[in-house]
Amino acid sequence: MRVLVTRPEPGSSETAARLAARGFEAVVLPLTETVPLAEAADAGPVDAVAVTSANAVRHAPRPLLDMLARAPVFAVGTRTGIAAREAGLNVVDEAAGDAEGLARAIAAAFPAPRAITVLCGRVRRDVLEGRLRDGGYRVRLIETYNTLPLDPDDAAIAAAFGEAGVSAVLVHSANGALQIGKLMSRPVLGTRLDHATFYCLSQRIADALPTIASERKKIAAQPAEEPLLALLDRHR
């Protein structure tokens, strides 16, 4: 079973390896990329750190990470927690699953008012910061990276797919869903996605897929890659 992976690197290659371990053939065609943002390495007063993605850690300046090394860190999920630990951060919770869960975990451990530093990307929803501020926390956002669209040329698309289509497409983000919509309008794609099912991390992400019938969309039980791949396993 061939599966299209369009998330930015290094995530695409990591996902492709997990797919291969499960017996799938990955077609890797990143449609977005993450780039670091210059940020002054001044952590300021901090009682705890929230990390919204592995990319937020990967692109953080080393001096900033060193300043945050002793603060308790709440990661949105397991893979983000792994990236944070590898960067030398003190992860105390990685079971949140999403921004709502992250806000609840922080509130349970650190009653307001406290100073929370959030490592995040420029392209994001404001759920976490909104929940924390509404709860009386002092929130400092540090945007460590931006997500930019990629526009592969016809040769790159043809090389990634070969002559065959795919049976499944993994959709990791709403931004990625929009880029997939643009890809589907490219004549070079032909019929390669005509019979694909779209496996989405959440309903919100599925809703961002343009012109795809609901019966061709599957939603993971939780917004994380392991439940997404488990869903794919069940429908192979």
Report on this structure.
The structure is a single chain. With 236 residues, the protein is of the alpha/beta class. Among the domains are: 35-147, 3-Layer(aba) Sandwich (Rossmann fold); 195-236, no CATH class. It contains ten helices and eleven strands. The chain has helices spanning 11-21, 54-58, 62-68, 78-86, 99-109, 127-134, 154-161, 174-184, 203-207, 225-234; strands at 2-5, 25-28, 32-36, 48-51, 72-75, 90-93, 115-121, 138-149, 168-171, 197-200, 217-219. A six-stranded mixed sheet has the order 3-8-7-4-5-6. β5, α4 (78-86) and β6 (90-93) form a beta-alpha-beta unit. α5 packs parallel to α6 (127-134). It comes from Nitratireductor pacificus pht-3B. Keywords: Lyase, Porphyrin biosynthesis. Pathway: Porphyrin-containing compound metabolism; protoporphyrin-IX biosynthesis; coproporphyrinogen-III from 5-aminolevulinate: step 3/4.
**Tally of helical segments:** 10
Unreliable stretches (pLDDT < 50, length at least 5) are none
Number of DSSP strand runs: 11
CATH fold-level name of the domain at 35-147: Rossmann fold
EC number: 4.2.1.75
Pathway: Porphyrin-containing compound metabolism; protoporphyrin-IX biosynthesis; coproporphyrinogen-III from 5-aminolevulinate: step 3/4
Family: Belongs to the uroporphyrinogen-III synthase family.
InterPro entries: 4pyrrol_syn_uPrphyn_synt_sf, 4pyrrol_synth_uPrphyn_synth, UROS/Hem4
